Amino acid sequence: MEMKRNESAKVATEDREFTAEETKNQSRAFEGDILRGVLESAGFSETEDEYRTIEVARHGKVMFTFRIHPLTEDEYERCKKRNTKYVRNKQLGIKMPEDTNSVKYRSELIYTATVEEDCRTLWDNRQIWDALAKKGVDILTATDVIDTVLKPGEKSAIGDQIDLISGFEDNNFEEVLKN
């Protein structure tokens, strides 16, 4: 029987009950694959294939580029904490978050996700700080450079890219749920 090009082969599957011992043996057979997959997943932020190049362009001309890498949950949390104002509730005796400065938070995310080499070239570059100071812009931190040179929409788009490579993809979540 010949299959047409657009037809897909049907695979016969059968539901079976396995004993506890049979299930354990099957798990052992795939243990190496599972371990390999888990270890590869854990090292996601260390591989260069996870980098994404960001081009900042104005009027059709690329002004500069830099690379970003995925962030961990801890990095997201540290950025949020650094840019959140806390107040002490005297009745409860605890600190409570009052407000997060979203402008500074986005800049901190961009700085944290920028590849170290590119941070030195762009955000931490004292020549850039001095040149901006000569134009009347006070630069006290690397995130001040980000706030000065990137437009709000650009920062938002870069934040979206950071989220995507960090695993916050809508279709990725659906894929995880299916499996």
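(ticket continues) Second input and output from the same batch:
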Amino acid sequence: MKPSPRLVPLAVIIAVALAGPLTPARAGVPTAPAFSLHTVDGKTVRLSELRGRPVILDFWATWCAPCKSSMPHLSAMQSRYRDRGLVILGLSMDDDDPQVVRRFADRLGLTFRVAVADDHVLDAYGPIRALPTTVYISRRGEIVRRVVGYIDVETMETYVRELLP
């Protein structure tokens, strides 16, 4: 009996599932929703202005222990890959005054931009049910990966390098 051409072996399904991030060649890759936010240092950042650059959006909070642990890694990635166009934007989920978030970022010596996420961004990129939640956006403006939870430095490095070619 000849197998149906519509049946795919389980090993192929598993291999595809484990193949890694979505790439623009795959159908259904979502485009990152547009936004405009004020950073904690009073500047405006618009996703549209970052088109052509790889972007990482990191949703975090000052009270989140795993978020605090990942901040130095994100800062190191921003410093290491800034010349290759990488933009990391930390989007605080804190309800506090933005200056509280700014002082927190300054204490940690963050090298990436920080803004407070507004309802528009949370609706567009949500639901954000756990922190940190990190969204990887390709140079084409497509969401290629979304990670919920802490990312160790080696994995983060792998994900960042996938954005850079």
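Agent notes: The CA atoms of residues 138 and 163 lie 6 Å apart. The helical segments are 10-17, 65-81, 98-108, 119-125, 153-163. Closing as not reproducible unless the customer responds.
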